[in-house]
Specification:
Layout (H helix, E strand, L loop, with lengths): L2 E4 L3 E8 L2 E5 L2 E5 L3 E5 L5 E5 L5 E7 L39 E10 L2 E9 L14 E4 L18 E5 L2 E6 L2 E2 L19 E8 L13 E4 L11 H5 L4 E2 L2 E7 L7 H4 L27
Parallel strand pairs: 1-8
Antiparallel strand pairs: 2-5, 2-7, 3-4, 3-6, 5-10, 8-9, 11-12, 12-17, 13-16, 14-15, 14-17
The structure holds fe (ii) ion (FE2).
The site of fe (ii) ion (FE2) has 6 residues, from loops.
Length: 287
């Protein structure tokens, strides 16, 4: 087993399936499904998984991943209207004990290349550490949704931010409770961002093409919104059990060649009234 370091980017690892521990010289962070594991750049670490399927959404950020600025006071503390607080953040605990000489392979990722360094001692074999640069975990299940009488704008789901992008959590919550509210969001086109949604749990399976672990990508400037029939079907609905992670980027995204193999060419046509073979999906309830 090797050790890994991302030299240039912070990583946010969303654990869809799998549980285990992240080890670093700062100690162990246990994780389970629903956790965001935030690993700042240059932290040498290993992921240790228990048996069972593993499915991760990994977001690389070339700027620091931070909590939302508007939820912090000038001391950096999270304010009372923040959807989560410091007590929800799980820092490293028990230290890793790895002593003795040997060949310890550290793979360093930089500019799309992996560089191999061999250490004579475990990179976790340290005397101690000091400071507040460390990996941590935060569970999406500890994100307290912000709801209202009228439709709340997407920033209420924001969980993290970096330069030019945000990560949002769509979690089980009550719908808008004005007596005349329409729970389904309205059609819109994102002026500022490309919008990527990753579907974690809920009944997305009700629609072909948007299954668990699917991605949708709505580029900025392209209108989108609920599928036909969704607005009517949403009337009177009180709550949703969906779980999804959204990444909004304020610069255009481009597909990789690998991603091209997974394209569902029918998706852009799925708003066509002739198309509707499936009932509305709960994914329609997300902005
Ligand atoms: Fe949108």
């Amino acid at each position: 087993a090797y050790y890994y370091k991302n030299a240039l980017a912070d990583e946010v690892i969303f654990v869809h399936e799998g549980r285990g521990e992240l080890w670093s010289q700062l100690g162990k962070v246990a994780f389970e499904p629903g956790d965001y594991v935030v690993v700042p750049r240059t932290i040498i670490h290993q992921l240790h998984f228990e048996d069972g399927p593993v499915r991760l959404l990994i977001i690389e950020s070339f700027s620091p991943v931070e909590t939302c600025r508007r939820y912090r006071n000038h001391f950096g503390q999270l304010l009372e209207h923040s959807p989560y607080c410091e007590r929800d953040i799980r820092p490293p605990g028990e230290l890793v004990r790895e002593e003795g000489e040997g060949d310890y392979l550290v793979q360093v990722r930089k500019e799309g290349q992996l560089h191999q360094l061999t250490y004579a001692h475990s990179p976790f074999d340290v005397v101690g550490w000091d400071g507040y640069f460390y990996p941590y975990a935060f569970s999406i299940h500890d994100f307290e949704p912000i709801t209202g009488r009228l439709h709340q704008p997407p920033p209420v789901h924001q969980t993290f931010e970096g330069n030019n992008f945000v990560i949002c959590s769509f979690v089980p919550r009550l719908f808008d409770y004005h007596p005349l509210s329409i729970p389904a969001p309205y059609n819109h086109s994102n002026v500022d961002s490309d919008e990527v949604l990753y579907y974690v749990a809920g009944n997305f399976m009700s629609r072909r093409g948007v299954d668990l672990a699917s991605f949708t990508w709505h580029p900025s400037g392209i209108p989108h919104g609920p599928h036909p029939g969704t607005v009517e079907a949403s009337l009177g609905k009180k709550e949703t059990h969906e779980l999804a992670v959204m990444v909004d980027t304020f610069r255009p995204l481009y597909l990789t060649e690998t991603a091209l193999h997974y394209l569902d060419p029918r998706y852009p046509m799925s708003w066509n009234p002739d198309f509707v073979p499936d009932p509305p999906r709960s994914a329609d309830m997300m902005d």
